[in-house]
Amino acid sequence: MIPKPPAAYGAFFKRAAVLAGLAWLGTACGGDAPRVVEPRESPDTPDWIAEWRHVRLPEAEFQRQYIRLASTAPAPDSRELRTRTAYELLERRILADHARRLSLDTLSSVRRRVIQATEPQLATAFIREQALRSQPPIREQDVRDAFRRRHTRMDLQQIYAPDRAGIDAFNERLRSGEPFDSLASESMRAAGQPADSWKMGWVGWNQLGLDAEIAAFALQPGQISQPVRSAAGWHLFRAENRQETFFADAGTYADSRESLRNALERRRVQQAGGALADSILRAAELRLDPGVLRKVWEELAPLLSGASGVSGAAPGPPAVLRALSTDPERLGLTAAIPLDTPMATLDGRAFTVQDLLVRLPNVPADLVIRQPRRAVELALGDWHLSRLAAESGLDRDPERILESNLARTSALVQALLSRTLD
């Protein structure tokens, strides 16, 4: 459900304030001034903030967008900012409505942009919901421990291995008497990192994964942890030094207690969610066609390296990926590789070249360039998890519907502006 806004922003839902900022819109849009629509009595009727002719700005959309703006904008909350934001959001809805009247919502580029925006959100929401079910309740002691870590810094060193077998082998050698320093340096070289990168330096709250932080911050100088897992692999931490701030008054803890509890829950879910997503994808039956993969990347290589000019696109791989995802035909891939060519199957579902191209902009460009298989796996991950989410009915949750509507409005506005410029 839509979260309640901070108390400081409660006043921005006053419709009179919105109307004041939108009154002149009618001059620009044909003479009809926007008007405020009061909430209806029926719970089945959406609550609108403002309207112009038949175009309405839902209160939930205004609330979501304004809170996002307020969390990033340098300007403080004000009536002027509220009314200007409401006008801009209503203007985007008017443009999106005009795009629909021109049937731009039938364009494949619009559908692709909506997929790019909503699919990762749906996959993340699905994993978060699943992870929440497996989490034990947060105890008061958990919050107090988090408070102590929040006010602690650790000077750390580490031995690293990508898997449990590797870290166990290092741990056995350490117990047999081999120096920590030499093993740590060896582990970094084996991971392709500089030999001295085992010296992590000063590390603070939320700079490690939660389990790694708990293990490392429990150490006193000179102590070595048991093997602990993070999203990056496995670690043996050694504490070189420790700095901790103590508070004699109870007020400091009380003031931060709720925010710490929320942060702790978020980090627990994030950590559990990563492991859960990996386990779901490992359990799925993946068959990747190496021939199609090789052929696709042979076609992509000159585009990603900048050897081929892409009309209308800014230079650089991310721009090329965006162009590929919205209009792959104009970049010449269709003749070489039909877009409906299956390149993988996951649990019996075909994943085509077009499916990949739509999702490549959501994959880090360096992976697309250097690790094609990993790039495909990441694209497949969101594709698969979002389908599991839809099968569970999560796509019908009001939160997801709101995000989908926002993404569709944005895609329609982009399509209309592109058509106007062309």
SSE blueprint and pairings:
Elements: H1 15-22, H2 25-28, E1 48-52, E2 55-58, H3 59-72, H4 79-101, H5 108-134, H6 140-150, E3 152-161, H7 164-175, H8 180-190, E4 199-203, H9 210-217, E5 228-230, E6 233-244, H10 251-283, E7 286-288, H11 290-304, H12 317-326, H13 333-336, E8 342-346, E9 349-352, H14 353-359, H15 365-370, H16 372-391, H17 398-421
Antiparallel strand pairs: 1-2, 3-4, 3-6, 5-6, 7-8, 8-9
Helix pairs in contact: 1-4, 4-17, 5-10, 5-16, 5-17, 6-10, 12-14
Can you put this structure into words, describing what you see?
Helix content is 56%, strand content 12%. The protein contains 17 helices and nine strands. The strands form three sheets. Strands 4-3-6-5 form a four-stranded antiparallel beta sheet. It has a three-stranded antiparallel beta sheet with strand order 7-8-9.
Shape: globular
Q: What is the average per-residue confidence, as pLDDT, rounded to a whole number?
A: 82
Strand proportion: 5-15%
* CA-based gyration radius: 26 Å
Q: Which parts are unreliable, with pLDDT below 50 for 5 consecutive residues or more?
A: 1-30, 36-42, 307-315
Helicity, as a percent range: 55-70%
Count of DSSP H/I helices:
17
Largest sheet: 4 strands, antiparallel
Assign the structural class, choosing from mainly alpha, mainly beta, alpha/beta, alpha+beta, or little secondary structure.
alpha+beta
| String of helices and strands | HHEEHHHHEHHEHEEHEHHHEEHHHH
Distance between the termini: 40 Å
Query: In total, how many beta strands?
Result: 9
Taking strands numbered 1, 2, ... along the chain, how are they ordered across the largest sheet?
4-3-6-5
